[in-house]
Amino acid sequence: MDTDSANTRYEAVAEIGEALMGKVYKARDLKNEGRFVALKKVRVQTEEEGMPLSTIREVAVLRQLEAFEHPNVVRLFDVSQSLGPTEKPDSLWSLSMWIRT
């Protein structure tokens, strides 16, 4: 999922949470029968080499959980990064299943 496709494929319906690192939105998948998804944007402090190692590790763990099916684990659909004005990553987007509470 690149940022352009995130902007055209998903419609933010409501902001459902905000923390120090970013925001989570309830979004509608416009290309998948309008199903609801959770779209999380996390601000990332990039280093000279790019994405911080801690962020890379977190994404790797989330990717490992993709194959794990359990009712108490939210399914991750996709992860991408968006570039800031200096062409360095400035945020990370994750797309996961929407669970109504």
Automatic annotation (TrEMBL):
<keyword id="KW-0067">ATP-binding</keyword>
<dbReference type="GO" id="GO:0005524">
    <property type="term" value="F:ATP binding"/>
</dbReference>
<dbReference type="GO" id="GO:0005634">
    <property type="term" value="C:nucleus"/>
</dbReference>
<dbReference type="GO" id="GO:0004693">
    <property type="term" value="F:cyclin-dependent protein serine/threonine kinase activity"/>
</dbReference>
<dbReference type="GO" id="GO:0010389">
    <property type="term" value="P:regulation of G2/M transition of mitotic cell cycle"/>
</dbReference>
<feature type="domain" description="Protein kinase">
    <location>
        <begin position="10"/>
        <end position="101"/>
    </location>
</feature>
<dbReference type="InterPro" id="IPR011009">
    <property type="entry name" value="Kinase-like_dom_sf"/>
</dbReference>
<dbReference type="Pfam" id="PF00069">
    <property type="entry name" value="Pkinase"/>
</dbReference>
<keyword id="KW-0547">Nucleotide-binding</keyword>
<dbReference type="InterPro" id="IPR000719">
    <property type="entry name" value="Prot_kinase_dom"/>
</dbReference>
<comment type="similarity">
    <text>Belongs to the protein kinase superfamily. CMGC Ser/Thr protein kinase family. CDC2/CDKX subfamily.</text>
</comment>
<protein>
    <recommendedName>
        <fullName>cyclin-dependent kinase</fullName>
        <ecNumber>2.7.11.22</ecNumber>
    </recommendedName>
</protein>
<dbReference type="GO" id="GO:0007165">
    <property type="term" value="P:signal transduction"/>
</dbReference>
<keyword id="KW-0418">Kinase</keyword>
<keyword id="KW-0808">Transferase</keyword>
<dbReference type="GO" id="GO:0030332">
    <property type="term" value="F:cyclin binding"/>
</dbReference>
<keyword id="KW-0723">Serine/threonine-protein kinase</keyword>
<dbReference type="GO" id="GO:0000307">
    <property type="term" value="C:cyclin-dependent protein kinase holoenzyme complex"/>
</dbReference>
<dbReference type="GO" id="GO:0010468">
    <property type="term" value="P:regulation of gene expression"/>
</dbReference>
<dbReference type="GO" id="GO:0005737">
    <property type="term" value="C:cytoplasm"/>
</dbReference>
<dbReference type="GO" id="GO:0000082">
    <property type="term" value="P:G1/S transition of mitotic cell cycle"/>
</dbReference>
<dbReference type="InterPro" id="IPR050108">
    <property type="entry name" value="CDK"/>
</dbReference>
